[in-house]
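AsnC family transcriptional regulator
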Amino acid sequence: MSELKYKILDLMKEDARRGPELIATMLGVTKEEVEQAIAEMERDHVIVKYAPIVNWSKVDDQRVTALIEVQITPERGRGFEGIAERIYLYPEVKTVYLMSGAYDLLVEVEGKSLKEVANFVSHTLSPIDSVLSTKTFFILKKYKQDGFIFEDNEGDHRLKISP
């Protein structure tokens, strides 16, 4: 991938509302070059979706998010791919990562209540043949997501370092 595309991605990741004209000005290239690069990245599924970062605590919405560590037995011939696909196709599942370490998959699930998420884990996820164990962590509060800090704290509250 070209250096221009990397720079465009960095600028769009920071703020996807920036238009091709502004990006072109910021990078010192033509608007047409930026439009062409973006179109190519969309076609090649480098850019998959444009979505806002939402601070759900500011909205009257009682969503519950959980991170679930899942240990699985890889399938012969497909490894982790088949089981990951089976899990990510459920509408409650927002994200699935293959991980190194003590567990194999990290699954992010969203529901309307703790009970709904717990039912998903106990009645849908855990009974899958390849699933050996699960460990569920409910997110109580988000402080920062994708580089964006949700709190409106004024001033610098970092601890001072003394020599």
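thats it. Residues 3-43 form a domain with the Arc Repressor Mutant, subunit A fold (CATH 1.10.10). The CA atoms of residues 71 and 133 lie 5 Å apart. bye
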